[in-house]
Structure formats: structure tokens, C-alpha cells
Amino acid sequence: MHTGEQYHALFTSSQQDLQVRSRFQSLALKLLGQGDDLLDFGAGTGIDAKVYAAHGHRTFVYEPSDSMRDYLLHHCRDEIGGAAVVRVELPLACQVQGVTANFAVLNHFDDHRALFDDLSRVVRPGGFVLASMLNPYYLGDARYGWWRSNLLTLLRTGRYAIQSESRIHRFAPRVVARAAAPHFRLERLTPRGLGLATELYMFLLFRRV
User: Fold this and answer.
1) Where in the chain are the domains?
2) What Å distances lie between residue 169 and 121, 135, 163, 196, 208, CA to CA?
3) CATH for the stretch 4-140+177-208
4) Mean of per-residue pLDDT scores for the chain
């Protein structure tokens, strides 16, 4: 288990992770109008929040991990001081145009129905939830026994969990889309088709209805 400082160092030194993060941030920023607020759900050490704030978007941050949150307070201290980044104890403490959940935050849930129900009270009509989730079809994971042993379960049910300390779950997009309804509809999935075999992360954009 990484400390907040270790996580921050790891994710700001990996070129692959930086590229994925840059694509996610760019998509989020394109979805936001001028001055729109957003909630960074599972904000980690504030890497994304700092960027959103720099583009003029007041960013509410929710991070349940003490270690991550402590480093976020350090990394975003200037933005917090200027109220460009605002820490919230509960996601329901804000009203925003969009919610972002980057780098597999939603893979820590075993069921997303209650979460999307809560987020429907946070996101304004016409707003969005943008999530980066681990791609269950990524062939790069086929070298691992846990991937091969769960393939039939994935094809049959659209989901499975890995026995580990964090018990990370893998979901087919259709399963998350069903959990998001009726409050949100899946508007965009990236990548699609054969691209799902080559990318570790998939981006799911849900629109508030």
C-alpha cells in the first residue's frame, strides 16, 4: 500500500500514466463550460484537481484515504488557500456540473447503483460523470493467471473481483451503464472495438438525464 507521497511520486514519474492522465484531463476540460464547478471524486493527491483549478474551475475534492488527503493538502495548498480547490467530507456536500473519477476509483466499488444515486443529487441536469476504469478486456493482462481464470466469468456476468488486499473489481461497460440508470446514460466509451484489447484504461462518460 503506497503512502500519499509515494503514490504522488509514482504517478508523476511514469510517462505512461502521465499520458493517460493528460488524455483524461483534456476530455474533462472539454466537457466543462467556462467557470463550471466540478467534483474530483477520489481525488488522490490532487494531481488532477490542481490542473482543473488552473483552468478556472472551482474543484471540490473528496478523498477518503488519510494518507492521500494529507498529501493533497500539501500539493494543492495554494489553490486551497485561494478557494479554487475545496475539500469536502462527503460528495453530497456540493452541487456541480461534472464529476471526475480518474485512475480506477470506481473499480474499488462492488456495486455502483448507490453511488450513481448519490451522484444524481450532486450533478446538475445535463451534467456529466467521467470515469477512468480498468479495462477488463485488456490483453496485456492475459499473462496473469487471475485474468485467465476469470475470463469466462467476465463473459458470462460482465464482472469479477480479484482476491487481493484492495479487492479490485473489473466491470464490463454495460454493467456500469445499468447501475448508472435511470439517472445517467452512457454517452461515450473510449476506446471501442478492438481498441479495448490494447488499452489498460477505458474512459466512460455518463450524462445526467
Assistant:
1) 4-140+177-208
2) 25, 10, 9, 17, 24
3) 3.40.50.150
4) 95
